[in-house]
Amino acid sequence: MVVKVYGTAYASPKRVLVCLIEKGIEFEAIPVDLIKGEHRSPEYLKLQPFGALPVIEDGDYTLYESRAIIRYYAEKYKSQGTDLLGKDIEERGLVEQWLEVEAHNYHPHIYNLTLHILFASALGFPADEKIIKESEEKLAKVLDVYEERLSKSKYLAGDFFSLADLSHLPFTQYLVGPMNREHMISSRKHVSRWWTEISNRPSWKKVLQL
């Protein structure tokens, strides 16, 4: 069964794509244009009533929220492809911990930067320099915590690549690329080493080529 993934041009759906590639799951990319408002169409709202990206359709099963989707496939196909959850309950606990850190401590600040630096003009509102400055300062403090963690561990949850690392890929790519904030990563020795490793995985390189 081919998994349909909606909105694959954007960051959060790319979180799903890299997971599917790591697990060796075939997928079909379905475009959804946010600028044209296609995420608010009646057809799309039947799949995702909040109008957010992504959504997957896997046969007659529909699921939205990118972190829920990657957890689902990592669990359903745990023995297939890369094990992204850890080998025991303790490792799984750390994967879940750092997924929560990404969602609640890292993502809000990098999302604000992405919104105001990259998409404000296209979405029809002025970039707020105060929000940009505050978000950059808050993200820097989070990255300092990451630097400490990664000085003791190859990856966030331990010495294995997991959903916790994978979940950082799409928005951090914006940070080091079009947002021109690469120094926030490169100035931290252990974060820089970690980013180099995860961003050079074949799965992520394949996503960037889609």
UniProtKB/TrEMBL annotation:
Q: Tell me what organism the protein belongs to.
A: Manihot esculenta
Where does the GST N-terminal domain start and stop, copy by copy? 1-81
Q: Which GO terms describe its biological process?
A: glutathione metabolic process; toxin catabolic process
Q: What keywords sit in the KW lines?
A: Cytoplasm, Detoxification, Transferase
KW Cell wall biogenesis/degradation (keyword) present: no
Q: What is this protein called?
A: glutathione transferase
Q: Which reaction does it catalyse?
A: RX + glutathione = an S-substituted glutathione + a halide anion + H(+)
Q: Which residues form the GST C-terminal domain?
A: 88-210
